[in-house]
Design a protein that fits this description.
three-stranded antiparallel β-sheet; two-stranded antiparallel sheet; elongated
């Protein structure tokens, strides 16, 4: 992982002042080089690197504490989330109280719900750190948040006439720091909470007693609401809005917003040395139009603001999509989606011109590009939805399961496209991220629009025939296995054998005859069989004479479809020995029956 980082940061920033491999092979040299750099220079080196590389460099710096606390809190949080738990302890032990506060504000809440187990997990993790800043953070924390934390973990009673009921304390572990307050732990992992209580008793008894009284008397619901509001105020300052504001990113782009001035540094989150987080750009594909425009942008102050805009915009996406801010997977998906939508909007606005795109980035708020990209995808979703509404029940009889999934993914709230996993016969779903993806969606829907019209008007297939006719074929073995290639190949066979356009199932003998005719004669025994393109071209001309008002796009789709049929015939049937019995269930692409049909049976045509 570290070796992969041995390159310059995105946007032409200076590379590390040493080969990345030295971090592992020559750490002493790295220490010497780091010792010659100022804190700011070390911060600039670390920003945007892989989290593991960041952690390893910090471990070698004699100024590690100061460097850590000078990093933007978002960068520190991304670092901690990007490494294994045991590897995060060093960074956590050096984090400032402000950085810990940000981490806890994100981790301890999901929406407006406090998450006690997460809070306890983090306190346990902090206890493993060497001299963590937890007490300093705790003293600075909002009082209501402290109360919410303790109310989740403790039951507190006092030996007086009003608070000595001890209700619900049966079987709970007991602790008393002073013999006055009786504390019962509601959680099993009480060791770390006990340590915190003792630390408070030693350093600030007044605060401890105030907290214990609040645990007794404060109404839980009201206290949680107050703590949440304080949390909202803090996170808003770091670019994490509430749901209603976040949803604004999915509103239609108002032309007036393009006239708004760009944000000033004072309006965005801050960090020491005025540096922005770099981690969002680690998820940016360097081949995308947006990346090319960024690389050409020379205005450094605009770059700093733009990076902050990306952080804030990705946060809005997480909130608006109802995702968990603390989920690493959700953060990665939101970042990729954000960058993809921006890329689509920028590519549309600049018409693919990098120089124009760079000029737009220098003057236009990135959220505007995001909204343009989203609106483009909304249009694609609308087109796909309309097509499904009008043709869904019809094409369901011959659409492959894979294409059915792809079509269905386009009508999600956020359309998805399939990404082939390299080296594997499978794919993942992802958000579109370029005009190329938009074009692929448009081509896919356009192709199925053609297939629907083609099946009705050229092949003469009516929906009533699928639903009312008894199944006249034995292969494919199920209706679900029927697809457009099978129908067209069967129609090709009927044309070659009988001179008609029909999707009637073929008998075993007819299917063998078709295969003997469609393949060119072998010159050498071991040659792969190839389809007779003259026969396919003749079939194409026959189809073009059907009353379908053929457009040039229709003709191209037909050529492509027949090309797929030809490849499928060669792949599925090219190796068959037609002199022997053929088990048709092992070859896909022809509608075959092994039964005799009564003359009165209706044909599927």
């Amino acid at each position: 992982m570290i070796d992969a980082m041995n390159k310059e940061n995105l946007l032409g920033e200076k590379a590390l002042p040493f080969p990345v491999d030295w971090v592992r092979t020559q750490p002493c040299k790295v220490e010497d080089i780091l010792s010659s750099l100022s804190v700011e220079e070390q911060v600039r080196c670390i920003l945007g690197l892989d989290p593991y590389l960041q952690e390893n460099i910090l471990a070698l710096s004699e100024k590690a504490v100061e460097v850590t606390r000078s990093l933007p809190v978002e960068e520190i949080y991304n670092l901690i989330k990007g490494v294994k738990e045991e590897d995060s302890l060093l960074v956590l032990s050096m984090a400032s109280s402000e950085q810990l506060q940000y981490i806890f504000d994100v981790e301890w809440w999901q929406g407006d719900k406090f998450q006690p187990k997460r809070a306890l997990d983090w306190i346990v993790l902090l206890d493993q750190c060497h001299d963590p800043e937890i007490l300093e953070w705790f003293l600075r924390e909002d009082f209501d948040q402290k109360v919410v934390l303790f109310q989740a973990f403790l039951k507190v009673f006092k030996k007086d006439e009003m608070t000595d009921s001890y209700e619900g304390a049966e079987g709970l572990e007991h602790f008393s720091p002073d013999g006055v307050y009786d504390i019962f732990f509601k959680v099993e992992n009480s060791k770390e909470i006990r340590k915190l209580l003792l630390l408070l008793y030693e350093k600030n008894q007044k605060l401890l007693y105030n907290l214990l009284e609040a645990v007794i008397w404060y109404p839980v619901t009201i206290t949680v609401e107050k703590a949440y509001q304080w949390r909202v105020n803090r996170t808003a300052e770091r670019g994490i809005p509430e749901f209603r504001e976040a949803m604004g990113i999915y509103s239609r782009l108002d032309a007036e917003t393009l006239k708004l001035k760009l944000s000033s540094p004072q309006e965005l989150p801050t960090s020491r040395f005025g540096l922005s987080p770099r981690y969002p750009l680690a998820h940016l594909d360097g081949t995308l139009f947006f990346a090319q425009c960024l690389a050409a942008l020379k205005n450094e102050s605009r770059l700093e603001l733009l990076r902050w805009e990306l952080v804030c915009l990705a946060n809005k996406v997480i909130i608006a999509d109802g995702l968990d801010l603390s989920s690493t997977d959700a953060r990665h998906r939101a970042l990729r989606k954000t960058l993809g939508y921006i890329n689509i909007g920028l590519e549309l606005g600049a018409e693919g011109d990098t120089e124009k795109g760079t000029a737009l980035l220098d003057k236009v708020w990135t959220q505007s590009f995001f909204q343009v990209g989203y609106q483009q995808l909304r249009q694609m979703r609308s087109v796909a939805s309309t097509f499904i509404d009008e043709n869904g029940t019809y094409i369901e009889h011959f659409i492959s399961s894979e294409d059915k999934e792809k079509l269905g993914a386009l009508v999600f709230r956020f359309p998805q496209v399939a990404e082939i996993i390299q080296g594997e016969d499978s794919f993942n779903w992802r958000d579109p991220e370029s005009i190329k993806d938009i074009q692929a969606i448009d081509d896919f829907v356009g192709r199925w629009k053609f297939y629907s019209r083609f099946a009705r008007q050229a092949l003469g297939l009516r929906e009533s025939m699928f639903s009312s006719s008894p199944r006249e074929f034995d292969y494919p073995e199920t209706l679900d296995a029927m697809n457009i290639l099978t129908l067209v190949t069967t129609a090709l066979a009927n044309y070659i054998l009988f001179g008609r356009i029909s999707c009637d199932p073929l008998t075993d003998v007819a299917a063998k005859s078709f295969l003997e005719m469609i393949f060119l004669p072998d010159i050498f025994r071991d040659d792969a069989k190839v389809c007779n393109e003259d026969l396919i071209a003749s079939f194409e001309q026959k189809l073009l004479k059907t009353p379908m008002a053929w457009t040039e796009l229709d003709k191209k789709c037909l050529r492509d479809l027949l090309g797929e049929c030809s490849k499928n015939i060669e792949a599925q049937f090219g190796s068959l020995d037609l002199t022997r019995h053929v088990d048709w269930k092992f070859a896909q692409g022809l509608c075959v029956t092994t039964r005799r049909r009564p003359a009165s049976t209706r044909r599927l045509r």
